[in-house]
Design goal:
Radius of gyration of chain B: 17 Å
Shape of chain A: elongated
Number of domains of chain B: 1
Oligomer: heterodimer
Largest sheet of chain B: 6 strands, mixed
CATH superfamily of chain B: P-loop containing nucleotide triphosphate hydrolases
Order of helices and strands of chain A: HHEHEEHEEHEEEHEHEHHHHEEHH
Shape of chain B: globular
Helix content of chain B: 25-40%
Number of strands of chain B: 10
Strand order of the largest sheet of chain A: 2-3-8-5-7-6
Largest sheet of chain A: 6 strands, mixed, barrel
Radius of gyration of chain A: 31 Å
Structural class of chain B: alpha/beta
Low-confidence stretches of chain B: 228-234
Low-confidence stretches of chain A: none
Helix content of chain A: 40-55%
CATH class of chain B: Alpha Beta
Mean pLDDT of chain A: 90
Number of domains of chain A: 2
Mean pLDDT of chain B: 88
Number of strands of chain A: 12
Chain lengths: 412, 234
C-alpha cells in the first residue's frame, strides 16, 4: 500500500503546476467554509446569548393563547397564583433548570408631568430576573443596577425622548383588569440600553409596584422566563418540560400552559436559520469546487496516461487495481488539501480570535467577534472534502480500469 | 510439450458492415526456450497474432494454448491474471513509466501485479538489472536514458516476474542497428540463462538472422516457417 501511495503521490506531482493549483483551490475552499462557519457561528452565538440572557430567557411559559394576543398584553390571560405554583413545582423538580422569573407584563402611559407617552413594562422580582437573564443588568447605562420598590428602569430611547434622567420622578398609569385606571409615581432608578428584538425596549418595575398599579390582590403572572444550566440541552429540556405541563388541563379539558423556546419568541431565530442556510450553501459550493477541480485533474490524468494505462494493463495489472490506483490519487489530493486547509483554518481563526475585532449590530456597538470552530466541524469539513475527492475520481478511475489494453497501447 | 499451440486461428474485425480478416487459419507450435520471430510486412497480422498469444485479445475462431492453457476464451480479469503470471511484454516504444526510476520500473510488476514482499523484490530486481547491464543506471528516470538503455530496462521488467514467455512487438524498431543487434543478443543471452521463450515480431530484415525460428506472415496467412525447427503448417 505504501508503494501505491508513493506512486500516486509521484503521479500527482508529475504536473506540479496543475496539482498545486487544484490543491490551492481546495485549501481556499476549506479555509473559506471554516472561516465563514467560525465568524457566523460567533455572530450567531453572541446574538443568541444577547437575546436570551438580556431579556427573553431560554424558554418562556405562558397561559395557552397568551402569545397570540401578546401585542395587547392582555391582563385577562395572565396565570393565576395557583397555576404559577403548579409551574414552579414542576420547575423545582427539574435539575436542568437554573432559574426562573415570573413577570407581569403590561402596557401603560408614562408621564414626566409635561409630556405623556406609551410604555411597555415588566413587573419583576429583581433577584429572580437577574438570575434568569444575567445580562439585563449589563444593559444599565446610568443609575443603580438594583431595582428597588418605587423605582422604574426606563428604556434609553424613551428616556431621551421624554428627557428624563436618573432620579427624576415620573408617573405610570395603567388600565387594570377590570377596566379601571390607576397610576403611581415612580423614581427613575436607571436608564436601560435597548436590545434587539421584542421586549428589548421594555421598562422594568418592581413586582410589588406592578401589583399595586394593576390593583391585583395577588400577582397574576403574564409569563415565566426560564434559564437552563446547559443551553445545549435546550430542546431536550423543552420536550420534558412541555410534556410535564401538558398534563395540566383546564375545565374544558384543554392545556393550561404553553411552553416555548427562545426560537419561537425572537425574530432573530429566522436570521439564525438564514445563517445556517448560508453555511449550507457555502458547503455546497465547497463540494462543487472540490468535485469539479479534482474531476478535471483526474480526467486529464487518465487522458494523458492512456498508453501508460495500456502498459500496466498489458503486464497483468487487474482492472480493480487500476481503479484503486486512480482513486488513490484523488483521495491523496483531497486528503492533502483537507489537511493543509484545516491547519490554515485553525491558524486563521485563532488569529481572528486573538485580534478581537469589533462590530456593531443594530444599536449594539463594539461587539467583539470571537470566532471559534469546533474540531468536530473541522473534521466533518475534511471528511466531506475527502469523500467528494473519491467521488470525483470515480468516473475517471472507472474509465481507466475499463480501458482496452490494445486500444490504449495504440493511443498516440 | 509445446509452450504455444495455435490451431487454425482466425481473427476478424468488423468495421461497419465490412469484415476484415486479419488472421486466416494459422496453425503452429512453439517449443519452450525457443527464440522465435514472426516476420512480415506492415499489416500482415504480426501484432494481431502477438496480441492473441499475449491474451490481450481473443481469436474469432480456432484454439490457442499458451503454457498448457486454452486462452481462446479467457475473460478480462482471468486474462490479466494469466498475463501477470506467464507472460512478459516488451514494447516498441519501451513504455516505461516516466515518473519511476529504472529500478522502480522493473520493480513495478512485482508490487502491482504479483504483490511480492520487499526483500524478495529487491533481490529479483537487482538480479535482472545486472543481467541487462543496467545496475549502475538504476536510479535514472526514462528521460535520462538512451533508447537502448530504456529497452534494456523494459527487458528486465518483462522478465522480473519469471514468465514462461516474453512477447516483443517490434522491439528494435526505435533503435539504431547496432543497438538493435545488442538488444537481440541480450534477449538471446537471457533466454540461454533463464530458458525463457522469446517471441518477437519484426519487419527489419537486418535482425531476422538472430532468430532461431522464423514464421513469415503475409496477409494473415503463415507462408513459411522455421529455419531451425519451427513447426508451422500455415
Amino acid at each position: 500500500m505504501a508503494n501505491l501511495i508513493k506512486i500516486a503521490g509521484r503521479n500527482l506531482f508529475r504536473y506540479k503546476r496543475r496539482t498545486l493549483l487544484t490543491l490551492s483551490l481546495i485549501v481556499i475552499g476549506v479555509l473559506f467554509v471554516t472561516g465563514f462557519m467560525a465568524i457566523t457561528g460567533s455572530f450567531k452565538g453572541m446574538m443568541i446569548g444577547q437575546i436570551t440572557d438580556s431579556f427573553v430567557g431560554h424558554m418562556q411559559i405562558h397561559r395557552k393563547g397568551y402569545l397570540a394576543a401578546i401585542d395587547s398584553l392582555p391582563l385577562t390571560m395572565n396565570l393565576k397564583p395557583g397555576a404559577v405554583r403548579k409551574v414552579e413545582a414542576v420547575l423545582k423538580k427539574m435539575p436542568e433548570i437554573e432559574a426562573w422569573s415570573p413577570r407581569i407584563k403590561f402596557g401603560g402611559m408614562f408621564s414626566n408631568f409635561t409630556e405623556t407617552t406609551n410604555i411597555r413594562l415588566n413587573g419583576v422580582d429583581p433577584e429572580l430576573e437577574a438570575k434568569t437573564v444575567p445580562l439585563l443588568l449589563s444593559r444599565v447605562l446610568e443609575g443603580d443596577k438594583a431595582l428597588k420598590k418605587g423605582e422604574i428602569f426606563v428604556p434609553e430611547l424613551l428616556a431621551k425622548g421624554m428627557k428624563v434622567k436618573v432620579g427624576d420622578m415620573v408617573v405610570v398609569i395603567a388600565t387594570n383588569r377590570d377596566g379601571s385606571v390607576n397610576g403611581k409615581q415612580l423614581k427613575v432608578g436607571a436608564i436601560l440600553e435597548s436590545a434587539t428584538g421584542p421586549g428589548g425596549r421594555d421598562g422594568y418595575v418592581h413586582m410589588a409596584d406592578a401589583v399595586e398599579i394593576l390593583r391585583m390582590d395577588q400577582p397574576e403572572i403574564s409569563e415565566i422566563a426560564v434559564r437552563l444550566k446547559d443551553f445545549g440541552a435546550l430542546h431536550q429540556v423543552f420536550a420534558v418540560l412541555a410534556g410535564k405541563l401538558s398534563g395540566e388541563l383546564n375545565k374544558q379539558g384543554r392545556p393550561i400552559f404553553d411552553v416555548q423556546t427562545w426560537e419561537k419568541l425572537s425574530p432573530f431565530y429566522n436570521i439564525a436559520r438564514m445563517i445556517d442556510m448560508m453555511t449550507l450553501f457555502v458547503k455546497i459550493m465547497l463540494v462543487a469546487i472540490v468535485l469539479i477541480s479534482i474531476m478535471n485533474v483526474m480526467i486529464m490524468a487518465v487522458y494523458e496516461r492512456v498508453r501508460e494505462i495500456g502498459t500496466i494493463a498489458a503486464i497483468g495489472t487487474l482492472p480493480r487495481k487500476i481503479l484503486a490506483m486512480f482513486l488513490l490519487e484523488g483521495l491523496l489530493m483531497g486528503t492533502i488539501g483537507a489537511i493543509i486547509g484545516s491547519i490554515l483554518s485553525g491558524v486563521t481563526i485563532y488569529a481572528l480570535h486573538a485580534a478581537r475585532l469589533s462590530f456593531d449590530f443594530g444599536r449594539q456597538t463594539g461587539l467583539i467577534l470571537s470566532p471559534t470552530i469546533d474540531p468536530m466541524a473541522l473534521m466533518t469539513i475534511s471528511g466531506i472534502v475527502i469523500g467528494v475527492s473519491i467521488l470525483a475520481s470515480l468516473q475517471p478511475a472507472l474509465k481507466a480500469a475499463r480501458m482496452d489494453p490494445i486500444q490504449a497501447l495504440g493511443h498516440v | 510439450m509445446s509452450l504455444i499451440v495455435a490451431e487454425d486461428i482466425i481473427k476478424e474485425y468488423h468495421v461497419g458492415e465490412v469484415t476484415i480478416e486479419a488472421l486466416r487459419g494459422l496453425s503452429f507450435e512453439i517449443e519452450p526456450s525457443s527464440f522465435v520471430s514472426f516476420v512480415g510486412p506492415s499489416g500482415s497480422g504480426k501484432t494481431t497474432l502477438l496480441n492473441l498469444i499475449g491474451c490481450l485479445d481473443k481469436p474469432s475462431g480456432g484454439r490457442l494454448f499458451v503454457a498448457g492453457m486454452d486462452v481462446s476464451g479467457l475473460g478480462k480479469t482471468d486474462a490479466a491474471v494469466f498475463r501477470g503470471t506467464h507472460i512478459g511484454f516488451i514494447f516498441q516504444s519501451f513504455n516505461l513509466i516516466p515518473i519511476l526510476t529504472a529500478y522502480e520500473n522493473v520493480e513495478y510488476p512485482l508490487i502491482v501485479v504479483q504483490n511480492i514482499p520487499s526483500t524478495r523484490r529487491r533481490k529479483q530486481v537487482e538480479e535482472l538489472l545486472a543481467a541487462v547491464g543496467m545496475s549502475d543506471q538504476q536510479n535514472k528516470r526514462p528521460d535520462q536514458m538512451s533508447g537502448g538503455q530504456k529497452q534494456r530496462v523494459a527487458i528486465a521488467r518483462a522478465l522480473v516476474t519469471h514468465p514462461d514467455l516474453v512477447l516483443a512487438d517490434e522491439p528494435t524498431a526505435n533503435l539504431d542497428h547496432d543497438t538493435a543487434m545488442s538488444i537481440l543478443r541480450l534477449m538471446k543471452k537471457i533466454r540461454d540463462e533463464l530458458e525463457t521463450t522469446f517471441v518477437f515480431s519484426t519487419h527489419d530484415n537486418r535482425i531476422i538472422g538472430e532468430a532461431e525460428v522464423i514464421f513469415r506472415i503475409e496477409d494473415g496467412v503463415l507462408k513459411t516457417n522455421g529455419k531451425n525447427g519451427g513447426h508451422g503448417n500455415g
